[in-house]
Amino acid sequence: MAQVFDLSCLQSLVNYSFANIARVKKELNLDESINSLDFFCVAVLKFENSKDLKYGVDLLNKILRNSDAFFNESNSFIYLVLPGTDESGALFVLEDFRDFLGNKFKYKILELRQENIKDLGKILFDIKKSL
Fold first, then answer.
1. What's the pLDDT score for residue 102?
2. Cβ-count burial of 109 within 10 angstroms (0-12 exposed, 13-18 middle, 19+ buried)?
3. Which of 15, 125, 126, 128 lies in the 20 to 30 Å Cα band around 106?
4. Residue 70 dihedral angles phi and psi, to the nearest 5°
């Protein structure tokens, strides 16, 4: 089951996750890039119908990994945080989820590395506007 957080915690959660990743890599003396440690995806899902959004939240609560998190904003948006997932992995998960829900939402995926998380709030705001 995924963790559900308040949206105001998103930047802190991402910073915390990358800090843990860096600590683990340092303790293991890992210099190379490892997808399950270095990649991090955030997906923004936009639902047109609040009933579909509620059903989506219920399903996500059941199907996401323990390491995943999501944030529900208003009656339209869900932000998924998928640590250890690159863009193609997130695309695979989201396409299956969207097909299962009957194409009831649009989405955009942002693949992150530690060096590009500084303006996460602005980046997500821009993504949300583009949906």
1. 93
2. buried
3. 15
4. -145, 160
pLDDT score, position 104: 93
pLDDT for position 41: 87
Which of 90, 47, 46, 52 minimizes the C-alpha distance to 68?
Answer: 90
Amino acid at 79: Y
Tell if the pTM clears 0.70, that is, is over it: yes
d(C-alpha 21, C-alpha 39), whole Å: 10
In the chain, what's the furthest Cα-to-Cα distance? 48
pLDDT, residue 51, reads 92
**Beta strand extents in 3-130 (DSSP E only):** 3-5, 40-47, 69-73, 77-83, 105-112
Structure tokens at 53: 């959004």
Q: Nearest to residue 14, comparing CAs of 124, 87, 126, 120? A: 120
Q: Which two tokens stand for residue 103?
A: 């194409």
Number of neighbours of residue 6 by Cβ within 10 angstroms = 9
Q: How far apart are CA 93 and CA 33, in angstroms?
A: 22
